[in-house]
Amino acid sequence: MNYFKTGVLLVLLTMLFIFIGGYFGGQQGALYAFIFAFVMNIASYWFSDKIILKMYGAKEADINEVPELYNIVKELADSAKIPMPKVYITPQNAPNAFATGRSPEHAAVCVTQGILNLLAREELKGVIAHELSHIKNRDTLIMTVAATIAGAITMIANMARWAAVFGGRSDRDREGNAIAMLVMLIVAPIAAMLIQLAISRSREYAADKRGALIAGTPTGLSHALLKLEKGNKVYPMDANQATAHLFIVNPLRANAIAALFSTHPPIRERVKRLENMTIQ
Question: In what order do the strands lie in the sheet with 97-103?
Fold first, then answer.
């Protein structure tokens, strides 16, 4: 069901992208926007892992310095039947982790120093299993495509906004389409963001479930999520909004309103679902 939902949301996002491009620029505008987004997708496909790892100052881990971490990743990769991913550590104190890469053959798992300091072995196994699930499901690629299309929609809306300010349409057109223009400028980017968030949340639930199966128990991950929620309040992470969806828990501080637009489902709901799981 999660795969079907993700597919539907990606189709809706693509349709919205084509519609808004055609509305503001006609067929030619839609074509240019599509080409630009296509180039962005290609760049994201090949280089997103390197860009993100560098963004967070991650260094490839030395097996001699963190043998337990390597053993956990190797054990769980074998359980998930995927190639051993590269292992990275970022020096941030905020407890968190993410996976990146375009495919299971070209993947990396990155953990913060904070998560290594905070979690017990079984809890860390739950987190790593969750990230390996993202790799196995190719979620990192799906969410990168969604973020790229959503970003392209916002970019088109911003360009149209400036075009309207500087007379991109005739007076008659502006008067006749003022309300429609306003709706498109405001609603389209918000709709794109909401669809992107829905995709991200859907994939988090799926990764929690498969991660528990890979680890052999949901207990480690459920306990880890509760610790990570508290830990990120104590040690807020220096994170970029555009990459927040990659982390196992939202690295950004959020008030009640901002939580509605979070890339992650509520921790309590994730824990509840894990506690209700039965693994045979």
Answer: 59-60, 86-90, 106-112, 97-103
